[in-house]
Design brief:
The structure is a single chain. This protein is of the alpha/beta class and 492 residues long. It folds into two domains: 362 residues, Alpha/Beta hydrolase fold, catalytic domain (Rossmann fold, 3-Layer(aba) Sandwich), CATH 3.40.50.1820; 114 residues, Roll (CBS-domain), CATH 3.10.580. It is built from 16 helices and 17 strands. It has an eight-stranded mixed beta sheet with strand order 2-5-8-6-9-10-11-12, sandwiched between helices. Strands 13-14-15 form a three-stranded mixed beta sheet.
Amino acid sequence: MREMPGSVGTVRTEYATFPAPLTLESGAVLAPVTIAYETYGRLNREKSNAILVCHALTGDAHAAGFHEGETRPGWWDGVVGPGKAFDTDRYYVICSNVIGGCKGSTGPASANPATGRPYALTFPVITIRDMVRAQKRLIEHLGINCLAAVAGGSMGGMQALQWAVAYPEAVRKVIAIATTARSTAQQIAFNEVGRQAITTDPAWAGGDYPADSPPVQGLRLARMIGHITYLSDGAMREKFGRNLQDRESVGYGFATEFQVESYLHHQGDTFTRRFDPNSYLYITRALDYFDLAVDDSLAAGFSGVKASFLVVSVSSDWLYPPYQSEEIVNALAANGVDVQYCEIRSNYGHDAFLLENGQLNYLISAFLDHLLVRDVMETGAPTIVERASINDAARIMIENAVNHLPVLAERGDLVGIVTSWDIAKAVACGYGSLDEIMSRSVVTASPDESVTEAARRMEERSISALPVVDADRRVIGLISSDAISTLIGRCA
């Protein structure tokens, strides 16, 4: 393990393959599907502390830490790790490569099982919704029913929004940064120019290029165009100005003369060594198709969401400008959804979601720390009826590996609680019924109260779990000190 303060250390990419067909939004079917992913931190017993981080257009599953032998950390290392916004001492953070990508998940460069050759353009067209469907399979594979949060910037933010719409019961919080709920004509236009750069390169060969001879010039140009949109005018002016590259005066020719030209060439050249041109076509088309509006109404598109939201824009972002984030906020507010909005003041442009670590760590940490009992309670916790025997209680505790059993009356409301300590006492004292050992003065929690308040009550009374009850005192869950100790620490 590579030891670095605030780092998750040395990590490795894992792979999950799902043989069952994945039906895509187009009606096409993809099988099998492999998803590359990385995880950081530990999943708690209740599996309630999982956060899915989604990458942008050219990202991958490597969000944090270091791969063996490499010195460059993951793409969001500034906010993922111990003590950071996505605190891996508290949360189990997951990041997967999208389908259609080229970093381990099934995409156009993958082998088509029907032919043994790369899919190339026989790979079905995919959408953001399809990417999220594939992620849902991975999350279920990891044994997680509900995510504490889904987060991402740019295309990652689109995936986060899609999660809230497609699986409202499976995500509690959404963090959408520098993104949109529907691609605009300008965004589609930039994507098309990039695709044309690739497909008009003779080496593209209709998508059937050899792996060792891709359309490098086309992909290089596409990346240069895209990179211009990621930076603001102010950032370019501050970084490059009109500075010349390795010369004192202009040469009155067409060689690379300005620093900004050299920078773009470098970005393009580097990109061609790590990304598949066909994946660029497929993923940018998925961006084009993204539109969460229903009958041209974003409010209607968000009508079924249940998560709470943090929406963040960047003041100098002209690719996904703040007004698009404000449209998301207004649509959520129209549905009475709990939403917080912040516009980061930054000169970096769209890339600020990768660079403004200080502001993002503060905003995200504050948003995630506002937890309600319903966010961390264990649902489906075992209970026992009042007339049951002590032996029944002991058996249920052993079978479910729990130390607390809420006791219910015949009509289903809470009348008491019994613990493993009570069972031990019953054996020692020869008691025969639950009524002799259970506590009838039960301290409970409400699903909508803060976790901090519930934790304080547990500490004050020296108890390790609280039944969570609704307005009719029916048990809907259980919150334990084990479940929340890693999330909020010791209460003041």
